[in-house]
């Protein structure tokens, strides 16, 4: 009888799965858009007549995420999931249309990059609005034993989109079809249409009745600025945001540097693109497993610490094998383990941010973690690119980065950048294991609320 009464107070609706699909698809599409050019760096720089075009296309997402991120945090917490989804979906779609126009051979080569970077900037504006949604969606629409897996599916859709595009870009643009950017962008834009269609079904920010006690009407989230202050007064949140955000930033640096680091050692473009895909797909497996464990037993801290340490070992292995040719098995194994362990941290880390700062609104804690990650990402990408070196004659003889001698000056070695990358990961892991001792404020509140209702 008591359980029946509790079920009537807190219930979930079938429509939550449509919302999950919609949020997942816009994150997938925006991930496609962000990383479109990272796996075809040299072709991109040549086609857009800018020696740093691919780098700029990547970095603009990270740079714009900071000012737009604060706007998105405030907007989502003030006006809800519905309007944020529509803003992100349409900005992503319009940005893709502009990029599509810029990639046509009918556009003067001198105008391609300015137009394309404008489209990339518009799509980058969408990123915070869509990447901050998963924890909000999970909190309002899903039961407490579904939140982690719902957050995993929706938040991991962004890196899955990155992986798919990283793998497909070399199929569209390669030695045989070096100017096939228009057809590639048709495919990316077609994916961006799907969230636009799904937006027809996103007509409410929250369900008619709460899914859990933490989203009940008697729980008042503090105003945005007060919420930000609460986050930064929490030692747990500060450690989490620096370490998890740093992990996001180091992932961005790895994705930006992986293709040029592999091609200088003679690995073919198909293998290089496949490694980007493997990194994410192994991460999806790890994230799904960790999400199930957390939903069932709630062991946020233990899962994150174990995963972080395993990822550190894999990062050390990758930093070594990236300097050798013909060791595909070693590269594959290192990337698989790093992806499976590293990505298992991301979605449950976002959930942990909500737990540690409850009742601060979900978009605030999630947004701050992602923004801190993007700041670190810009730093890591720039720092590692400054540490590149000139390849020796043997590397120049086996490299698969460029086809013509006039572009040989763009071929670089990545020994020192990956060493710096490994040192940064090691510092983050050590800090996280030593200083991260969380309190589960949201879960404790929900358990207390249920026990109080049972006593009544």
TrEMBL record:
GO terms for molecular function: transmembrane transporter activity. It comes from the Eukaryota. It is found in: Membrane. Keywords: Membrane, Transmembrane, Transmembrane helix. Pfam families: MFS_1. It is a multi-pass membrane protein. GO terms for cellular component: membrane; plasma membrane. Gene3D superfamilies: MFS general substrate transporter like domains. The chain crosses the membrane at residues 20-43, 55-75, 87-107, 113-137, 149-169, 181-202, 237-255, 275-294, 306-324, 330-348, 360-383, 418-437. InterPro entries: FLVCR1-2_SLC49-like, MFS, MFS_trans_sf. The keyword RNA-binding does not apply. This is MFS domain-containing protein. It comes from Caenorhabditis elegans.
